[in-house]
Amino acid sequence: MNPAGKRSWSGLYLFVVFAILYAPILYLVVYSFNSGGTMHGYEGFTLEWYGEVFSDVRLLIIVLNTLVIALFSSAISTVLGVIGALAIYRVRRQQSRNALLSLNNVLIVSPDVVIGASFLILFTMIGLQLGFISVLVAHIAFSVPIVVLMVLPKLQEMNPSLLDAARDLGASGWGVLTKVVLPVIRPGIFAGFFMALTYSLDDFAVTFFVTGNGFSTLSVEIYSRARQGVSLSINALSTLLFLVTIALVIGYYLISLRNSRPAEGGQNR
């Protein structure tokens, strides 16, 4: 098969894969504007369901809860993840470094149900009331390994001679960290922050186990409403959550693109 034929088949394959992935989401978005009130027939365009979402005071409080949890957990997990990545990077023995990295990956590869149930048992044993704090701690826990995986490759790409040169010039340990290391790994830090933010906004399984009666997030609220019956306000709410996630991904892409330009310019010179 010639190269043009291979490219056409690979393009068709990618189109089919993305169509399968995004068709249900597109279906949900289209029917969020349906005036018919059901998912069985599209009768006309309306913004009624979005108006219903924005007029629900309880739902707006839940949106605020979700954003606060996501921002706080991603900020704290970014700090902890950077510290963890630096600690793993400073380990000299390759075997020990691989062992620490494997331990870091446990929360990523473990099923969310297991993580959620484990946190529920832990919080029950120590007597912590389920609510804002329990959800925040759980989100920080599963976000830190993500940040570590985003930051560690940037540390490994860093030229060690930069650190030696900074020390030779009289820089302190703090100066080396703030003036050399952090600027080099900044793309990884931003990537880790945005990934943690996205995971926190979308998480359901872990959050479902650690939320209390008086506290909820968007993912849990959408699940609860879907169990009560089909309403197109669920479509509208899910569409808004999907758009926020897309905006975060685009923001991360633009920041990564901007950070890569100086490096490319330096290589060209």
Can you walk through the features of this model?
The protein has 269 residues and is mostly helical. It has a single domain, classed as MetI-like (MetI-like fold). It is 81% helix and 0% strand. It is built from 12 helices and no strands. It has helices at residues 3-31, 48-54, 57-90, 94-104, 106-109, 112-126, 132-157, 160-168, 173-202, 205-210, 218-228, 232-268. α3 runs antiparallel to α9 (173-202). The chain is globular and about 70 Å long. The two termini are 40 Å apart. Mean pLDDT is 83; it is low at 265-269.
Assembly category: single chain
Sheet-strand content, in percent, reads under 5%
Provide the succession of SSEs. HHHHHHHHHHHH
- Ranges where pLDDT stays below 50 over 5 or more residues in a row are 265-269
Average pLDDT, rounded to a whole number, is 83
Specify the helix fraction band. over 70%
Indicate the overall shape: globular
Q: Helix- and strand-based class? A: mainly alpha
Per CATH, the architecture is: Orthogonal Bundle
Rg for CA atoms: 23 Å
Number of helices: 12
By CATH, the topology is MetI-like fold
Major β-sheet annotation: none
Distance from N terminus to C terminus (CA atoms, Å) equals 40 Å
Number-wise, the strands total 0
Domain tally: 1
Highest CATH level, the class: Mainly Alpha
> CATH superfamily assignment?
MetI-like
Layout of secondary structure:
Blueprint: H1 3-31, H2 48-54, H3 57-90, H4 94-104, H5 106-109, H6 112-126, H7 132-157, H8 160-168, H9 173-202, H10 205-210, H11 218-228, H12 232-268
Helix pairs in contact: 1-12, 2-12, 3-7, 3-9, 7-9, 8-9, 9-12, 11-12
